[in-house]
Fold this sequence. Notes:
By secondary structure, this protein is an alpha/beta fold.
Amino acid sequence: MTKRIKLYTPGPGDVDEDVLASLATPVIRHYGPEWMQIYNETQRLLKQVFKTENEIFFVPGPASSLMDMAIGSLLATGEKIIVGDNGFFGDRLAQIARGYGLETIILSAPLGKPLEPQVLSKLLREHPDAKVVALVHHETGTTVLNPLRELALLASEAGKAVVVDAVSSLGGADVRVDEWGIDICVTTPTKCLEALPGIGFISVSPRAWELADAHPQTNHGWYLNLLTWRQYATEWGSWHPTPVTLPTNIILAARTSLLKIVDKGLEAHFEKYRGASRAVRQGLRNLGFEMFVEDEYASPIVTGVCSRPEFELDEMSQWLVEQRNIAIGGGLGELSGKMFRVGHLGKAASREYLVDFLFAMEEFLRHKGISVPLGASLGGL
């Protein structure tokens, strides 16, 4: 039997038992009156979390496929897009854009630093023909929380469609789709919505539809084409609102978690993440670790921590798994071996999980012959 590993990774996270129990219910068909009641309720809950009145589609697949859908649906080959890139997932957006043959202008910032609104303002002036600005809110690869409100409003007020990867931020940090002028917003239930992978959610504004409708013959593909999804939602929406079979039990699990989040209130959910982040950052600092990102723009959802000269991070990660059944995340790409990432998703934000992780870090340091006062890591709880 596989041993139980506690997840402190950037995703997925350990979820509550009632969310898991939703998977064990009899399979529900993805059409008909019974399903439409569940579908419409989940839509209502999602709109509260997205803070939008825009249409939301449920698309089976990983969140990256929905970012692919967003960019490919709005622009034709040869058109221009501005892409924010200050980490692994910003770079992925740029790769998607180039894959569609788009002229891709990069809004860049160094690893570990946020995208700067003044730089975007300059690019908007230099490239008035850019139709879309694509941004990552939480750059999970570095744990930077980009200033989405300022960036999105700048682009929106300049008349650009704003596409946002809120995959690892929606539900864990404030995202106001309508108020901030976000035209397409993508997320997944496997991060701060504290459910299971297998489905993505995408909201689409009237301005986004205008772009998609401007070149229906040059839109890319069928499955990852927003026009396909709108067609089925329009023609079959009363009983079969999607062009493909939905993973209904995965959506049931997401609904179970959304009901709890909305019932407790979004601000309480945000504070849970902020509290977990404070505890980990302070606790690890008390043990002599340095944070990879300054507090001012550090994510409350995943904490990035610098490596230390006394040991290799691979050794630490392996010890945590083998000795304490704890899994954390490593650095991605060029940050591999230079930093590690501690996720606060789901149960990882609970006091029980926080104490277990912080004590385990103390124990590892003692294992390496580094003197640590007992309980030093708990100063942030």
